[in-house]
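Case study.
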Amino acid sequence: MPVRVRFAPSPTGFLHVGGVRTALYNWVVARQAGGAFVLRIEDTDEARNREEWVTGIDEAMRWVGLDWDERHRQSERADRHAAAAERLAAAGRTYWCDCAREEVDARARERGGPPGYDGHCRDLGKGPGGDAALRFRTPDEGTTTVVDVVRGEPAFPNAGIEDFVVVRSNGKVMFVLANVVDDIEMGITHVIRAEEHLPTTPKYLLLWEALGGGAPPVFAHLPVIVNEKRQKLSKRRDPVALELYRDEGYLPEVMLNYLALIGWSPPDGRERFTLAEMVAEFRLEDVGKSPGFFDVAKLRAFNGDAIRALPVEEFTARCQPWLTGPLAPWPPEAYDEQVFAAMAPLVQERVAVLSEVPAMVDFLLLSDVRVDEDDWARAAKPEAVAPLLDRVLEAWAEVPWEHVADEREPLKDSLFAIGDELGLNRKRAQAPVRAAVTGRSVGPPLFESLVVLGRERTLDRLRAARARL
RNA sequence: GCCCCCAUCGUCUAGUGGCCUAGGACACCACCCUUUCAAGGUGGCAGCACGGGUUCGAAUCCCGUUGGGGGUGCCA
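After joint prediction, the assembly is written out as follows.
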């Protein structure tokens, strides 16, 4: 039987990073088996069915490079779901129930037992219509066991599984049923999803059997991804949208690499690997069981390494959204390809995410520098800064405007010579110049930057700074 | 409350009964390099939750405790 897996996100406005990992594992399993990766958008809840949210999923998937073989929208299969519900009803596996939530709760309280539905309408022979919902009759005895590649065989006593609703009173089919129907009809062989679905899996299995689905799929419930407080990442309090990381300048291949590592690592334990390597080495049974923390610090470290490993041309190409695109902090005409090309290698080894690039070169592209108050104050503190700037201004008006490593380095030599005479070490001598010219206390190497900036602009900025002293 | 899951450095993990005085990575600290910041180099800190078993031998197997998490909808 050909391997067929599915990734079934519901449109919530963005693609959740945890979902990306789930999609990745599914995709890898499909690719290594030469099977099919099905993208199934579970949009049956109207509140989550906004068109742009649906296309947002496609875009996000494309960005990370997880291509699908089939794409379905659950909402388009409503008739299939309804037909399945009818089959269940015809087979006597369901019954109509018009108990209100409050009644169910009240009875549970009286009973003193666990909350949940008590089977009140089971044998009342009620019909559809009004507030009636269709409930699935669950077994009172026995155990439903989930055979799970990563969890073993968790067993659930059937007595603890309430008669759950499969069709709402408004006629809409519930998620579990739609899920099972789609999985059966789409020939899904492996259900790889987040651990939070484990508790509903017995219901899934019961329905699967009731619908005559044949051999159930192989399950793999992946450990959840948690925040620093060890809670499942939530869209309300945690930065979970893949788009956020994309706009911050994380590389898609790094996102995949890092996410893969939460829950799985290659046999040899190395941490950096490509998608192709993962396809070659991944095994579902090697997936870990414990929840994993989404550590942005580590993601950043991986990203910085990956950026540095890029050929410069590619680095430059990948920077375009922040240089000439919508994420650039300046108008398109401010960008100068030549200027950036001169700085690119120096910038490349200093950023961890691409969104940090503009701040590294803005002083070269913008006509006015905004000088950071604190940085300037710190750099300008020593008494000797005023005479230093005076003498540098004088010297640099004459000196050859170049910086040649290992040979003559006129800019550098003159600055440090002046600094020496005034009792300022190299660190303190370059600081006021850097702050005056670039606006910040950190940035790419100073003399290289000045060469690109040019004599006139450099001297202008130094004069302006001298005047502020 | 009830059901289910989980438990190795701060974090992600390697480890599947002797190879473990527990390895790597990120973070952190120190030093080196150095025109800032990075990068790089060297070194360091730091862990098998606890208690019982099983065994010649347990991070590895079993039971319990504790701690954490998930689920418990006419959401997906």
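Observations recorded in class. Chain A has a mean pLDDT of 94. The longest strand of chain A covers residues 36-41. We will return to this complex in the next lecture.
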